[in-house]
Design brief:
Elements lengths: L5 H5 L5 H7 L9 H34 L7 H14 L11 H13 L13 H4 L12 H10 L1 H17 L9
Length: 176
């Protein structure tokens, strides 16, 4: 139907209801199930519009600061899926990280593309390390509740560091 991106879908604002009635045969005078389909379509359209607007704001800010623009998770997953379909499954240690691809796309846009050796490529495994946390075989929620009930733990781990941090004086520049 020609609507193959979220951007195009979000631009249907002016004639959204007419498109629903004519092209998709989802008139509002139909059954409750059909009306629910129309409502679902409108909710999806509003979500797409907000997403496109926020993405444009983020990209504009990234451009002004000369930072790499973030790649949407869906785009990153689509790239990985396209590779998987054409070639085969790629392990995380061989998959370029999202951050690396963002950097390379920025270099392409600015015309400053540089080739790098494979040792310099940051893999998905390197960029997304596992984080470990001790919970004494309790689920995270139970461990947090237990820690919050104990006044000593609560004072030591939750309140004191923040209180000390907020009371610290601002560092002065003595090297001038």
């Amino acid at each position: 139907a020609g609507v193959d991106t979220v951007d195009k879908f979000a631009c249907l604002e002016k004639d959204l209801i007419q498109v629903l009635k004519d092209d998709l045969a989802l008139g509002g005078s139909a059954s409750l199930a059909t009306r629910a389909q129309v409502a679902s379509f409108i909710v999806a359209w509003k979500s797409a519009s907000v997403k496109v607007q926020r993405q444009a704001e983020v990209e504009a800010e990234m451009d002004t600061r000369d930072w790499a623009k973030p790649i949407a998770n869906t785009d990153y997953m689509a790239m990985r899926q396209a590779y998987r379909v054409k070639y085969d499954m790629m392990e995380d240690k061989a998959t370029p990280s999202k951050e690396y691809l963002e950097k390379k796309l920025q270099e392409l846009e600015t015309g400053e593309f540089r080739a790098e050796t494979l040792q310099q490529v940051i893999s998905r495994e390197e960029a997304d390390p596992d984080t470990l946390m001790v919970t004494d075989n309790l689920s995270w929620g139970k461990a947090l509740k237990q820690a919050w009930k104990d006044p000593t733990t609560k004072e030591r781990n939750f309140t004191t560091p923040l209180a000390l941090y907020s009371k610290r004086p601002a560092p002065e520049n003595k090297g001038k």
